């Protein structure tokens, strides 16, 4: 069966390609010659094609356009306008796997289109199934306290801290857990992807720091982001820990596109052992019915991070209201992070909020209403938290003997074990 293909190649190269495909009608059929990116995306949205051949000189084509095409089930093949190594690298950094030189014949382009469509139909789903099997196997394993399992550099794990609304302490845990992982000798990148109230920079005393995550997002959208660029954008807090700070002004949420964050996380996996991501509580997808453009989704960053996560820490407050919200968030997590291993974390555990023997009460409540068998319980330690926040330092630096710091060190050990790849 002939594959329906869109062609968006500026100049005479488009006419030459279409003419050359006259002898390949059994393999490919040109359903539309698109004048610009808007025409290309609109036709793809209509479901008229399975693939698109795009010229590298097509103005306005970026990572967001590529993500839109893939969401429509359209595979992309790029045709170099000029045989240039820098252009080839940029398009591959955008995420296009098939970039062909100008000398490629029409028949070879048709064969590459068929290959790209085949990979899109089988390869991505197979990868998703493989990650799901790894996650399922991880869920069945025990998690002995204090056992350390190394993560191989270049195959970093994405750890997302998410949870319900309310003052759960999610950002505080993200900062200090990242510091504990770095203190254990791992390379860690802390990413502040909260589009409602980014604050990791303030917690770490980086008050004059520009939102480096947005700079990395722009580079990812333009196809300029690689490991070196990412390391340059991320400020080093102390050896082993780098930070991509988010925008303190909530009005800049639209600058962090989901496709850009996905690309940042993919590249970060190659650069560090751990990518710790702090996201907003809101994970509703209703914005898609509000905006005409699918890119304009304020919760898109949270959804993209959860979808890419290897491990999700669901953080909730250890009080009656916080636990009820946490149960609901836990129940919604399988749809948001189908391949991420969940781990429940009840924060600020104290008798005053839930009564005597708070650990037993919280454990029993989470097991009864959410099926959580082994939650992490972190003690309430306001004195230590206030001290390190005032100093703009981490618990491991300023309060190494604090009760919360000891609990976070144990949580870091557990995280290392929970997110370790399954042995064959």
UniProtKB/TrEMBL annotation:
<dbReference type="InterPro" id="IPR027417">
    <property type="entry name" value="P-loop_NTPase"/>
</dbReference>
<keyword id="KW-0067">ATP-binding</keyword>
<feature type="compositionally biased region" description="Low complexity">
    <location>
        <begin position="120"/>
        <end position="129"/>
    </location>
</feature>
<dbReference type="InterPro" id="IPR002586">
    <property type="entry name" value="CobQ/CobB/MinD/ParA_Nub-bd_dom"/>
</dbReference>
<dbReference type="Pfam" id="PF01656">
    <property type="entry name" value="CbiA"/>
</dbReference>
<keyword id="KW-0547">Nucleotide-binding</keyword>
<feature type="region of interest" description="Disordered">
    <location>
        <begin position="120"/>
        <end position="148"/>
    </location>
</feature>
<dbReference type="InterPro" id="IPR050625">
    <property type="entry name" value="ParA/MinD_ATPase"/>
</dbReference>
<feature type="domain" description="CobQ/CobB/MinD/ParA nucleotide binding">
    <location>
        <begin position="162"/>
        <end position="381"/>
    </location>
</feature>
<protein>
    <submittedName>
        <fullName>P-loop NTPase</fullName>
    </submittedName>
</protein>
């Amino acid at each position: 069966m002939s594959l329906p293909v869109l062609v968006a190649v500026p100049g005479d190269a488009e006419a030459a390609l279409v003419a050359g495909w006259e002898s390949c009608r059994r393999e490919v059929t040109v359903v539309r010659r698109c004048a610009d990116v808007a025409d290309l995306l609109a036709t793809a949205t209509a479901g008229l094609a399975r693939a698109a051949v795009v010229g590298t000189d097509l103005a306005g084509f970026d990572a967001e356009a590529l993500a839109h095409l893939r969401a429509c089930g359209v595979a992309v093949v790029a045709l170099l306008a000029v045989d240039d190594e820098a252009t080839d690298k940029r398009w591959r950094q955008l995420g296009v796997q098939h970039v062909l030189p100008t000398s490629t014949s029409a028949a070879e382009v048709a064969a590459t289109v068929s290959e790209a469509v085949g990979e899109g139909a089988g390869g991505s789903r197979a990868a998703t199934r493989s990650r799901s099997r790894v996650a399922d196997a991880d869920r069945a394993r025990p998690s002995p306290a204090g056992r350390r399992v190394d993560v191989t550099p270049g195959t970093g794990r994405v750890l997302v801290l998410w949870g319900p609304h309310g003052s759960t302490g999610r950002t505080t845990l993200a900062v200090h857990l990242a510091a504990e992982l770095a203190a254990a000798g791992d390379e860690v990148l802390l990413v502040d992807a909260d589009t409602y109230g980014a604050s990791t920079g303030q917690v770490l005393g980086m008050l004059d720091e520009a939102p480096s995550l947005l700079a990395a997002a722009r580079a990812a959208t333009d196809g300029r982001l690689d490991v070196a660029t990412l390391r340059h954008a991320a400020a080093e807090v102390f050896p082993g820990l780098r930070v991509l700070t988010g925008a303190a002004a909530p009005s800049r949420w639209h600058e962090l596109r989901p496709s850009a964050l996905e690309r940042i996380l993919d590249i970060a996996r190659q650069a560090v052992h751990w990518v710790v991501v702090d996201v907003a509580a809101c994970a509703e997808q209703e914005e898609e019915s509000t905006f005409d453009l699918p890119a304009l989704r304020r919760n898109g960053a949270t959804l993209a991070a959860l979808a890419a996560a290897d491990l999700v820490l669901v953080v909730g407050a250890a009080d009656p209201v916080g636990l009820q919200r946490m149960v609901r968030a836990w129940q919604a997590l399988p749809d948001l992070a189908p391949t991420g291993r969940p781990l429940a974390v009840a924060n600020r555990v104290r008798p005053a909020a839930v009564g005597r023997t708070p650990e037993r009460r919280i454990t029993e409540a989470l097991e009864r209403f959410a099926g959580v068998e082994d939650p992490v319980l972190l003690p309430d330690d306001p004195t230590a938290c206030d001290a390190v926040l005032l100093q703009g330092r981490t618990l491991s630096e300023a309060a190494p003997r604090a009760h919360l710091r000891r609990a976070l060190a144990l949580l870091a050990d557990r995280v290392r074990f929970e997110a370790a790849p399954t042995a064959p």
